[in-house]
Amino acid sequence: MSKHSPDADVAFIQALAELLNKNELTELSVKREYGEDDSLEVRVVKQANVVTTIAAAPVAMAPAAAPAAMAAHAAAPAASVEDPAQHPGAVTSPMVGTAYLAAEPGATPFVSVGSTVAEGQTVLIIEAMKTMNHIPAPRAGTVKRILVEDGTPVEYGAPLLIIE
């Protein structure tokens, strides 16, 4: 039977999240041993560059505020950027993990914008469960955009880069 309290675990996780923010880290992983067959493994990840699209809902407002709100709403579609995941040349993540643009810190990136790639060539690595997974180019072409930064977490299906 465990002799530690769940409240202590919650406080510990909150302290880790504060440490993550305070030191501008993106990921923190800790294993806390309480005894034989009793431990707590925590992985705290701060997702960077999250883009959220929110559909505008009709809002009742005072007549004086309506023209300004309508002008802002009308400008929104013109300012919206094409969804990279819908681009025909998008290379998407086959798994959840952390994306790395080079084989090791300080090494030359696998590709850069303007690079010509061959089908099957490694374009980046995704670390998942302490395993480095090489992500191959699905087709030959030129790298037009790199949509992730080195060391950022990615989700399944997230666009990584665009090859045309």
TrEMBL record:
GO cellular component: acetyl-CoA carboxylase complex
Alphabetized InterPro entries for the sequence: AcCoA_biotinCC (IPR001249), Biotin_BS (IPR001882), Biotin_Carboxyl_Carrier/Decarb (IPR050709), Biotin_lipoyl (IPR000089), Single_hybrid_motif (IPR011053)
Any single Pfam family the record assigns to this protein: Biotin_lipoyl
A GO term for molecular function: acetyl-CoA carboxylase activity
Key word Transmembrane helix present: no
The Lipoyl-binding domain, residue ranges: 88-164
Keywords noted in UniProt: Biotin, Fatty acid biosynthesis, Fatty acid metabolism, Lipid biosynthesis, Lipid metabolism
Gene3D superfamilies for the chain: 2.40.50.100
Keyword match Disulfide bond: no
Pathway(s) this gene product operates in, as recorded in its UniProt entry: Lipid metabolism; fatty acid biosynthesis
One GO BP: fatty acid biosynthetic process
CDD domains to which the protein is assigned, alphabetical: biotinyl_domain
Function description: This protein is a component of the acetyl coenzyme A carboxylase complex; first, biotin carboxylase catalyzes the carboxylation of the carrier protein and then the transcarboxylase transfers the carboxyl group to form malonyl-CoA.
Protein name: Biotin carboxyl carrier protein of acetyl-CoA carboxylase
Organism: Aliigemmobacter aestuarii
